[in-house]
Known about the structure:
Blueprint: H1 6-16, E1 19-20, H2 21-27, H3 33-45, E2 49-53, E3 61-65, H4 67-70, H5 73-88, H6 102-108, E4 109-111, E5 120-124, E6 130-135, E7 138-143, E8 151-154, H7 157-164, H8 170-175, E9 179-182, E10 190-192
Parallel strand pairs: 5-8
Antiparallel strand pairs: 1-3, 2-3, 4-10, 5-6, 6-7, 8-9
Helix pairs in contact: 5-6
Amino acid sequence: MGGxxxxxxxxxxxxxxxxxxTDLRKGLPTIATNLLADRLRELEEAGIVQSxxxxxxxxxxxxxxxxxxxxxxxxxxxLGSWGAPLLAKAAKSDAFxxxxxxxxxxxxxxxxxxxxxxxxIELRTGDEPLTIETRDGEVHTRPGAARDxxxxxxxxxxxxxxxxxxxxxxxxxxxxxLRHKGRPKVLARFRPTTSA
Length: 196
């Protein structure tokens, strides 16, 4: 597990589930293709990742975590929590994928009204949307657009993350370029936990 890129590959598979090789490349923008292939082979040999051929219309190899690989989630969540402040302060020139916010948000956001109907918030911070939703009293994240979102937040990743993690209030986030569509009051459903 100490190999370069290994935890980042596991992170991608935790966030996305089953992935094509091209999906992994997209989520790891600066990895060399031969290095990704080597790491996937090593992870498969170690029983962390498994590959399977998906039938048409996908018709390609998919990579997913084994149950042993999924046991790494608490470790990745803690690393995500530790690294979240860096993500919020990243330079504009740094590589960024929207779905990278999934683990810190999953770890830090709590549903304040678990008995109320679910809500969905769509985040638009760059390459693809990210959806945050409440379900069964928990906060879930997933790459992709929300179906019938209660709120859509658009802007720089640092601003959106700052708002969701309680570092910026709504007014300050709007002054920093945040745009929204829908009902901002649904943000009250989420309360960030105290950072470590």
